[in-house]
Amino acid sequence: MQPIISLKNVHKNFGEKQVLKGINLDIYPGQIIGYIGPNGAGKSTTVKILCGLISDFEGEVLVNGINIKNDPLAVKSIIGYVPELAELYDVLTPIEFLNFMAELYGLDESLATDRMTKMLTAFGLESVMHQRMDTFSKGMRQKVLIISGLLHNPSIIILDEPLSGLDANSVIIVKELISKLAKDGKTIFYCSHMMDVVEKVSDRIVLINNGTVIADGSFDELKQQQGNQSLEQIFSLLTQGSGNNEASEQLMNAFNN
Amino acid sequence: MNFIDKFLVYVVLLPKAFYQNMGVNTTQLKAILKTKVTLGDRTPTGIRAVKKTNQKKPTSGVSFTQIFMSVFLGVMFMFSFFIGANYVTKLTLFFSMYIFVLASTLIAEFTTVLIDVRDNFIILPKPVNDKTVVLSRLLYIVIYISKTAFPMTLIGMGFMAYVNGIWGLFVFIVLLLLATLLTIFFINAIYILVLKITTPQKFKSIISYFQIGLAILMYASYQLVPRLIKQTTLDNYNLENSTLAMLAPPYWFAGAWQYLFAFEGGFKLVLCVLLSLAIPILSIWIVIKYFAPSFNQKLAMISGTSEEPSVNKSGKIIKSTTSKYLSFLSKIFTQKGAERMSFLHTWKMTSRSRDFKMKVYPSLGYLAVYLVLLFVNNKGDEGSLTLPEPNSFIYIFIVYFCNFVLITALGYLTFSDKYKAAWIYYITPVTKPGLFILGSVKSILFKFYFPLVVVIISLAYFLLGLSAFPNFILGICNQVLIILVIAYISFKELPFSVQAGNKVKGSSFVRGLFSMLIPLSIGVLHYFIRDFLPIVILLIVLSAIAIWMMMDSLKNKTWDNIKVQSDF
Q1: Rounded to two decimals, what is the model's pTM?
Q2: The predicted structure's pLDDT at residue A32
């Protein structure tokens, strides 16, 4: 099977700082990738390269067989991106915002209106559809963002902490939605710091640290390699060694004076 | 969208076929423009953003406000048609005012218009090509500028049409367009310059200082210019024969109008025509060719796409941000604990909160303008600056007058964008919240009042000698006392704990009136006893005792006297 996303030896520097030091990844349709790593590991840089936000990297990125440097627009139109930190024009109403998104993706108007109404209703936002989003809670904004990433029915969906701010019920809805989308043949790229969620949601986990992939495989495979532990423990072992235990000891020691 | 925005979007999208030939997706272009215009209409900008008082009501109709303001400024420009001996002079003034006002409004508001960090996440990941993004940005600027420039010149145009006929109007409009181009060049040049001398991170705060400076300058020119220039000089004022004027762009436009209107005039006017045509076109070419590429890059940097927002990653431990001077002050003048914490906290917050600076710093500037006004001699034949006579009471008046700054600062002390962070006051076991208020008030006194006082006293010392000192000390003591009383009465919330813009109008009006009347009446009383030294000294002692008592009661305010903000 041909990979839908393929990163070959991707490097990226910001000034003198090397953020990505040769990332190699092949991702296949229908996979849910849990993309994890400590702060500053290069997660969001990878995501920005995939979304076409950063174009001056070294190496090759193929999405659906298309080189992202040659035709970024073709790649952008099959990707749905849900950014972290509720970035949206909050003086617009959900309908205005989603209509804008639909027009940028070149969606047919009646189709788009139909879809967004259905999705907003499914998320319980039908009563505030025409209310400006500056009064919305974090969870409500997150729902609108998720819809904006799915509206054009993309084959690749990149989610950056998609559950932040959502209440327990919405979390269940989104988690189920993710596995249903994957069953439908869509590829999910799931970035998060919540190890327990990544452990349950994703069928392949990619761990990066200092700009390189240091672990790649299903949760079961990782457990076999690293001993029968939780993802959280594996994460800390691979990225920090025994440092976390030491740090908490130091924290406790601070009381002794 | 209102009809003006709709119309403007329609007009800029007219050359559809042309845009498509360039490789622009016009459907997306329209979508972006429509959204941007709607956003603009709902987002208050510049000084207005800070003055926005009621957050409950959604903002809209910013376009109308913008247009109304511009028309109002346009009316002010008409002043230029009533002075000067000929059209070259009148129009030089008109164009000067137009270029200055347009440039300053645009400089202040361009950042809000151009830089939207959210674009990076919302528009750029979508299948939109660069040309469409660039053109949408450009057209949006065109729409934005026309909403400012057109209403600003509308009345002037009407006047020109009425007095000089259609041809006069036509030439005037063409020259206005050229002047607008030149202004855009100036703004670009200033932006590039500011970006050269500073980091993009500091750019926004520099622009806000610029806005503050602008507000003060407007106010100063409104107050001072009419006093400095006499009417008779104005009527005979003639620029036509001045060679120096040739250096000023507004003069070119005025001269060009004069020549093109009548097709007569000397070499100088012909030169004006050439300059007014060539320079704007040349400058806009420079903007497109050289400024625009690096400009967009720099703007992207301001937008904070950079991965590392200057967090200290070197592992070196950064030294405390409390300067020696500040920690010295706090150790001497505040008590350990809540009071000192509040003192330092207020000091730092007032330096770093953009919101606070935007509200309080203009009033510092207004004060400076008033002070200059006091020294401007109105009686002379020409406006001139003279120092008041040595034994004049004016210096003591100034000490009282500085109260204006303090009251403004005090009035905004409870407000903050990050009002929710005030939970720290409520979860800590502090029994006397009055300590927070006392520390805060002391901080304001030391930061905004005492430096001013030092300046005034040293000035007075050189002019008056030591004899005026008792009066100064009494004035200062009274001032501190007044501030403490006002703080005691009106401080019902803790510093930085109330949502910015949530101001209750009634009480602030009463507070304002009350706080202006008290210092003034005490000042008047002080005036009558100023020559009786024993009384002055006695009053200093009384005032000092009162200060001590006030501080004590302020400190002892309990939680029953404080409105706890539950909204966090």
Answers
A1: 0.71
A2: 93
